[in-house]
Amino acid sequence: MSTPDAPEAVQATLEAVQAALAAEHAAVYGYGVVGGRIGDDREDEAQAAYAAHRAQRDALVRTVRDLGGAPAAAAPAYALPFPVPDAASAVRLAAVLEDRVAGVYSDLVRAAEGPLRREAAGSLREAAVRAVRWRGSGVAFPGLAERSGRPAR
Questions:
Q1: Could you tell me the pTM of the whole model?
Q2: Between vectors from CA 51 to CA 115 and to CA 105, what angle results, nearest 5°?
């Protein structure tokens, strides 16, 4: 993950990209659970989100390599924040996944510059929009738990 000769700014950016990659790995796993429990009426939405997170994960792997790092591998499994026995809890999980992803992209926006910053802002926006769709309501400052009025998950 670290390169000893990298300037501080590049190292901070690399760490933020690695955090985003880790969140995308977890989101891909989480959407596997969502897809197994979601009702037929929202199955297409879950599949689209799953595909979007896979694409983001793959893009972040390339970005980590471009920054001189070794991409963090996915864990074999991830702890879910609560049991997901039915479609209602699957919808809640999807919203939580998007909130978490938005949070790490918020950090990446702060750490990055130029095109990577714009890409991170776009990814933050996409996660926030998906969270609103899943939850049915939005937050004032997506990706910033301390300002959203919602507790961090």
A1: 0.85
A2: 40
